[in-house]
């Protein structure tokens, strides 16, 4: 079948050249006579992949020497549990900035093993239609860390700024917008991201950890869950999911070849602008529930006049080869996930389709 | 390059038809116009893969209704931590049968969060050259569970029997020999296995859990680490590594097409017999350090007269297209990992090579 345009929220579309490259050498990784998936995680072939993946992340995000790249398993959800277990000492509390389902889950896991509190919220009239501004944050000066979700895939919100948390280390769940634009990594104590949106397929979690924070990992925590273990073991203390890392490397090579994080930002602003312009240019038919300053450039969401029209649009889009635009089941509506890999020309196709749909059904 | 014969201990060789199948549809999964790795873990395409993988495991291992198949992340090492956290209540102790590095690690993680004790050992003169017999097990009648490693990849040992633990649930790390032969799953409380030996690539852990044991998962444990969460969420409570599961499904289809677990046992006995016959037929040159009844049919290990000869054999084997035969760094020697996917004809090639090597260097 012809390639469809895939607006899924994650796992998500990947660059076609990346898929083609992986397919081509799937049976014979770099002339070694075996597939990458068959190589030992301790052998030379995978060691090169591992080192290059870390090196590309360092280069593309301009990661300072104070920070190290780690790979873990379990996605952001495992980090919801592991961040407090590693970074919060007994008796300490942690701050959570609330922007929807993901921060809700992160806070809930943190509360199971200790103290944690809300330090700001984007909730308005019961809905997370915005992110709080810096001045609205209510920070505990003694917090073990401050946690926030930089982009919310369900509500279609994104922080336009990096929160200033004074002395408390800033921890960010960047699963859905890491590498969507340049970033000042020095502002963060920890960044973590499941790979399956901007970085690759599902199955690996990227962490960027300020190295001194690994000293907080307590002896009472199982070794395999300590950041110190992963840091000291170069993420190879046990068998790493080699294929997901390999795919992340291939995606990062593609990002580099496109021009890096700055080129991604330009591309993403163009794509998101295209969709938001369409919405704002036809407010009699389209409506974006998100406050303008909080709009995501990764997951623009919008509503049509009725749920029936939304269902009709989803069906007609699929017929036209555009899939995955149904909003999350908890909020409904339309969601267009346009991560780094999404081509601007494909977004333009969708916008043309949506405008024609509005004209025919408005 | 021509395909090499890969004796790596894991990640390990996979069936060539499985790799070819995955390669062929890598860009277009079953005519959906996108790669499996791009599909949502909540969409119909992956749902089919998920259900079929579970169903094939049930069929091939004849899993009774009392047990459920779960998928988790983090490999066996994460389970070293999670088994006691889920199955051992405060004040309880757990029993560990010791057979080498993997049970050492499992016991060490268990001791971090509570009481655990050795309940038998295969250690002789400081080395794990055998597995203990049933009569040698020293079981605590009140143990929360009894844990053992069914096959040790480093020492080349394997249990020829399933331990009888009376009322205590039996927990097995079967990472390196699951599905190597038929199994009476009803004897187990929990079986867990990293996929990267007999089941597929690295990145997914298969659990077979007696469902009533999920009730033990305590509220004090983070939700994402509770077996009850995984059981109730059908392993889809968060994003699952879709590609590793897909590859496991493809391997299981291959196992089924070969004749199932019984056919694997026949094939594995033939391969292992071929190697052990070679060793026992030339004891002036080859020496297997493992007691006869404890020999693994997955990872036969042996020594040559000198370490220099071992290094020479490893180098000459590589020149002849046979890789991964170097023993684990902690023990040295030669190790031939011959998991399900290893072709008997390739083992025969190795044996022919090894016999010629013995003749030339003996």
Shape of chain A: globular
Number of helices of chain A: 9
Could you say how many structural domains of chain A there are in total? Answer: 2
**Uncertain parts of chain A:** none
CATH homology-level superfamily of the largest domain in chain A: Type I PLP-dependent aspartate aminotransferase-like (Major domain)
Q: What is the assembly state of the chains in this entry?
A: homodimer
Strand content of chain A: 5-15%
Beta strands of chain A, count: 13
What is the CATH topology assignment of the largest domain in chain A? Aspartate Aminotransferase, domain 2
The SSE string of chain A, one letter per element, is EHHEHEHEEEEEEEHHHEHEEH
Describe what is shown at a glance.
Two copies of one chain form a homodimer. Chain A is α/β, with parallel strands linked by helices and 362 residues long.
Would you write up a description of this structure?
- The structure is a homodimer of 362-residue chains.
- Chain A has 362 residues and is of the alpha/beta class.
- Chain A has two domains: 17-257, Type I PLP-dependent aspartate aminotransferase-like (Major domain) (Aspartate Aminotransferase, domain 2); 260-361, Aspartate Aminotransferase, domain 1, CATH 3.90.1150.10.
- Chain A is built from nine helices and 13 strands.
- Chain A has helices at residues 16-24, 44-60, 75-87, 101-112, 227-232, 242-258, 260-280, 307-319, 344-361, and strands at residues 5-6, 67-72, 93-98, 115-121, 146-149, 151-152, 157-158, 170-173, 190-194, 205-210, 301-302, 322-323, 334-335.
- In chain A, strands 2-10-9-8-5-3-4 form a seven-stranded mixed sheet, sandwiched between helices.
- In chain A, a hairpin with a 4-residue loop joins strand 6 (151-152) and strand 7 (157-158).
- In chain A, helix 1 (16-24) crosses helix 6, helix 2 crosses helix 6 and helix 6 (242-258) crosses helix 7.
- The longest helix of chain A is centred in the last third of the chain and has 21 residues, at 260-280.
- Chain A is globular, with a radius of gyration of 21 Å.
- Chains A and B meet through helix 1, helix 3, helix 4 and helix 6 of A and helix 1, helix 3, helix 4 and helix 6 of B.
């Amino acid at each position: 079948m012809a390639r469809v345009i895939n607006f899924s929220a994650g796992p998500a579309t990947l660059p076609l050249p990346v898929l083609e490259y992986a397919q081509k050498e799937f049976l014979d990784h770099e002339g070694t006579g075996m597939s990458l998936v068959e190589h030992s995680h301790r052998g030379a072939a995978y060691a090169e992949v591992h080192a290059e993946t870390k090196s590309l992340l360092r280069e593309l995000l301009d990661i300072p020497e104070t920070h190290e790249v780690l790979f873990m398993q379990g996605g952001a959800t495992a980090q919801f549990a592991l961040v407090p277990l590693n970074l919060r000492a007994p008796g300490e509390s942690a701050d959570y900035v609330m922007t929807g389902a993901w921060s809700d889950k992160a806070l809930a896991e943190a509360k199971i093993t200790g103290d944690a509190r809300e330090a700001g919220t984007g909730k308005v009239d019961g809905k997370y239609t915005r992110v709080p501004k810096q001045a609205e944050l209510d920070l505990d000066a003694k917090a073990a860390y401050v946690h926030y979700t930089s982009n919310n895939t369900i509500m279609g919100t994104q922080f336009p700024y990096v929160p200033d948390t004074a002395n408390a280390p800033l921890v960010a769940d960047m699963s859905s917008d890491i590498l969507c634009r340049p970033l000042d990594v020095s502002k963060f104590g920890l960044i973590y991201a499941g790979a399956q949106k901007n970085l690759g397929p599902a199955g690996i979690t990227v962490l960027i950890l300020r190295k001194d924070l690994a000293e907080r990992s307590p002896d009472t925590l199982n070794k395999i869950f300590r950041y110190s273990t992963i840091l000291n073991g170069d993420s190879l203390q046990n068998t790493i999911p080699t294929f997901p890392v390999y795919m992340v490397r291939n995606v990062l090579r593609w990002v580099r070849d496109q021009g890096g994080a700055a080129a991604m930002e330009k591309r993403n602003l163009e794509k998101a602008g295209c969709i938001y312009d369409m919405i704002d240019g036809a407010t009699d038919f389209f409506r974006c529930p998100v406050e303008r300053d909080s709009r995501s450039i990764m997951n623009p969401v919008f509503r049509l006049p009725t749920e029936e029209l939304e269902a009709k649009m989803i069906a007609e889009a699929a017929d036209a080869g555009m899939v995955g635009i149904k909003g999350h089941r908890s909020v409904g509506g339309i969601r267009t996930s346009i991560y780094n890999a999404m081509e601007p020309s494909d977004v333009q196709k969708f916008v043309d389709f949506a405008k024609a749909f509005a004209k025919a059904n408005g």
